Structures are given as C-alpha cells and as structure tokens.
Amino acid sequence: MKKKITIIGVGLIGGSLAINFKNSGQYQVIGYDVKEHQLQMAEKLGVIHRGVMDLREAVRDSDYTFLSAPVGQLYDLLDTILELKFKQGVIITDTGSTKGKLVEYTSKFLEKGAYFIGGHPMAGSHKSGVSAANERLFENAYYVLTPGPNIPKWVVDELISLLSLTRAKIIQMDPYEHDQVVGAISHFPHIIAALLTNQVAEYSEQNKWYSRLAAGGFKDITRIASSNPEMWRDILIHNQQVMIDLAEDWKRGFDQIIQMVSQLEVQAIEEFFRSARDFRNQLPEKGKGALNPLYDLFIDVPDHPGVIGKVTTLLGEAEISITNIQILEIREDIMGVLRISFRNENDLERAKNLLKDSGYHVYLME
Ligand SMILES: NC(=O)c1ccc[n+]([C@@H]2O[C@H](COP(=O)([O-])OP(=O)(O)OC[C@H]3O[C@@H](n4cnc5c(N)ncnc54)[C@H](O)[C@@H]3O)[C@@H](O)[C@H]2O)c1
Ligand SMILES: O=C(O)C(=O)C[C@]1(C(=O)O)C=C[C@@H](O)C=C1
C-alpha cells in the first residue's frame, strides 16, 4: 500500500508540494483546507488525489503531514493535531516563513510519538492559492529544514529523501539563524516594498501621473507589494524582534545616504550605488529550468487533439514568444487548463487579448 501524505492548507505552497508528491506515483496525497473551493480546485487541477474537510480524517493514517497554512494558523493547528489520533512515527513538517518559536513549540510532539521538523522552501510568489501552484516552483531553490536537537538523523534523512522529489536544494539550519537571515532577505524587503508603494499611492491621489509613469524600476522593486496581506501580517508578527533590529540598521543607512545627498558628497553617493551593484550582481541567478511564475496565463481548453497546437500557432503568428507551456489537467471529456508563461507583462497582455478575441476563456490568477 502506498504511503499517505497529508497537505494541510492546499494553497500555492501546499499545492506545489502536493503536485510533486502525486506525480511521483509513489504516494497517496490527501488535502485538507478550511476553504472547500480550494480543495475542489486542487482536485480539479489534479494536484491532490482527494480533499477532505475533516482534519481528524486527514491526519489519521498519514505517514507525512505538511502544514502549509499561514504562519498565524500553525500553532492552533498543531494543538488540534496533538489531540487527534495519528500514526506513531508520523513525520510532521511545515512550510511557514518563520521558524524559531515554532520549533520550540513543537518539541512536545516527540513524547507523543510524532516527529516535527520545521521547513521553509525559499521559493514562492506574490500570488496565492492552489491555482498558482506549480510543479517546478521549488526546482533549484533552497529548502531549509530546521530539525530540533532530539530528532533522530534517520528521520531527517527520510524527510530529505521525500523532499528531493521537488528538486530543491535541501539544507539544514538553526531555526533562529534562519529567522535572522530570512528576515533580512525576505521579510524586511516586503516592508520596504509596501512602504514605498503606500508612499506613491498617497501622492497619486493628488496627481494621476504617479501611477501612469510608474515603470520598470518602480514595478521591479514593488512586485512583492502585491503579496497576500494576511500572510505578511503573520510573518512580521512572528519575526518581531528581527524586524525591529533590521529597521534600526535601515534607519542608520538611510540617514547616511540622505546626509551624503544634502552635503553633495558625490564620491560617497557613487560608492553607495557601486557597492550595492557589486553585491547585487554577484548574487546567483535562479537555477536554469525554473519557471518564472510571474507572467502566467491560464486557458480553459477542451480535450481535443490539436488544441495546444492551435493556441501556440495563434501566438506564434502574432510573434508572441512563450517561455513555457504546461497542461494542468487533461482527462477525457473534461475541460483542461493550459498554463502558458511569457517573458514579460506586455506579451502576457497581448496573448490574453488575442486568445480572448479568438473565443478562448482565458484568465490570470491572483
Ligand atoms: N507565498 C510564498 O511565497 C511562500 C513561500 C514559502 C513559504 N510560504 C509559507 O507557506 C505557507 C503557505 O503560504 P501560501 O503562499 O501557500 O499561502 P496560500 O494562501 O496560497 O495557501 C494557504 C492555504 O491555507 C489554507 N488555510 C488557512 N487557514 C487554514 C487552517 N487553519 N487550516 C487549513 N488550511 C488553512 C488557506 O485556505 C489556503 O488554501 C505560509 O505559512 C507561508 O508563510 C509562503
Ligand atoms: O517571490 C516572491 O514573491 C516571494 O516573496 C517569495 C519569498 C521571498 O521573499 O523570497 C516569500 C516568502 C517566503 O517565505 C519565501 C520566498
């Protein structure tokens, strides 16, 4: 009998994990979510084998349980699971963006016969929900595990082996070190992006040109301001002290550059940009083969031979390049969903209008 994997919270991250596990053919993948429509969509897209709305049923025979709900939900979920009947030796892990407090909180699982290992895939998107799930989301990305000191090595190895299906690079880290580092490279940047966006939004109330002229630079630095507000509220709250410390460093840096500008310290200003450029330029690019989840278009297609060819021909004739194409589900007599990725927003927009005008039902995902 196949081992059972339960995904609690079948959204972007849970759904992307689920696809990898399901497509391996080695596991039975069950989804649980508080939103029934997410489960229905997950089943329709073929992301999970089956969705259940009852947590008791979801965890009962599970060999591996993934908690991929928002960070603020994890503690209550863990408390509930602890009271339920679960398999002895089950490996429970999460995908939450913060790790320190959670790992401390979960040490009590061990005495109940379950192993908890904190986890955090360092890949994602500003999009939410299972419709944005992507089989290749984690490919080449780092996936951090933060096992507590009492978790046996063979248990960690077993989880690593399962996660290798995602083709992520799995590393282990101290949970508080994780929060420190990820606070600086992920959590704090979301504050900056939102702050900058709010500042410009305020100006644009008086003058429409702010939003009309907002081009590449502004859009690049503020892409993540489109992220899910509830998710980011939870993350900041659960990494509170790190955020406060980073803000102090930011204020110091900000005072310095403003001082340079007001004193017209031209050399220092140039050096400020040069050192940033040098560090930015040596950051590794995302590995080859990984999808850029940004410019995706979804198209409902009937399961007729040649339908993909018709769509790609239409795009090709209009000289719109595609970077990837994926069938999210094709079963007999059932409408399938085609996901086509484009290089930029302009291509995406043109393709959307073209396909719509040709009678296809096309949509973007939040
Ligand atoms: N989005 C990212 O870029 C990213 C990357 C890595 C890790 N994470 C972390 O992964 C987790 C999931 O993020 P996501 O982007 O997939 O969010 P998402 O909103 O796409 O999915 C979360 C899912 O959890 C469900 N949910 C909410 N409360 C629940 C509960 N009490 N029980 C069961 N299901 C519940 C929601 O209905 C939703 O389907 C978060 O903890 C987040 O911090 C996110
Ligand atoms: O690419 C994005 O939109 C993300 O915000 C992904 C991102 C990140 O900050 O890099 C966000 C949260 C996660 O916990 C991990 C990854």
Summarize it:
GO terms for molecular function: NAD+ binding; prephenate dehydrogenase (NAD+) activity; prephenate dehydrogenase (NADP+) activity. The protein is an alpha/beta fold and 366 residues long. It is 48% helix and 17% strand.
Provide the descriptors you would attach to this structure in a database record.
single chain, 366 residues, alpha/beta, Rossmann fold, 6-phosphogluconate dehydrogenase C-terminal fold, Alpha-Beta Plaits, 3 domains, eight-stranded mixed β-sheet, four-stranded antiparallel β-sheet, 14 helices, 17% strand, globular, binds nicotinamide-adenine-dinucleotide, binds prephenic acid, Prephen_DH, EC 1.3.1.12, amino-acid biosynthesis
CATH H-level superfamily of the largest domain:
NAD(P)-binding Rossmann-like Domain
Class inferred from helices and paired strands = alpha/beta
Q: What's the total number of strands?
A: 12
CATH C-level class of the largest domain: Alpha Beta
Could you please describe the fold and organization of this structure?
The chain has helices at residues 12-23, 36-44, 55-60, 71-83, 100-105, 153-163, 175-206, 209-213, 216-222, 229-238, 240-262, 266-281, 307-317, 345-357; strands at residues 3-8, 27-32, 50-52, 64-67, 91-94, 115-121, 142-147, 169-172, 296-301, 322-329, 336-342, 361-363. The chain is an alpha/beta fold and 366 residues long. It has 3 domains: 3-175, 3-Layer(aba) Sandwich (Rossmann fold); 177-281, 6-phosphogluconate dehydrogenase C-terminal like domain (6-phosphogluconate dehydrogenase C-terminal fold), CATH 1.10.3660.10; 296-363, ACT domain (Alpha-Beta Plaits, 2-Layer Sandwich). The protein has an 8-stranded mixed β-sheet. The longest helix is centred in the middle third of the chain and has 32 residues, at 175-206. The protein starts with a strand and ends with a strand. Bound molecules: nicotinamide-adenine-dinucleotide and prephenic acid.
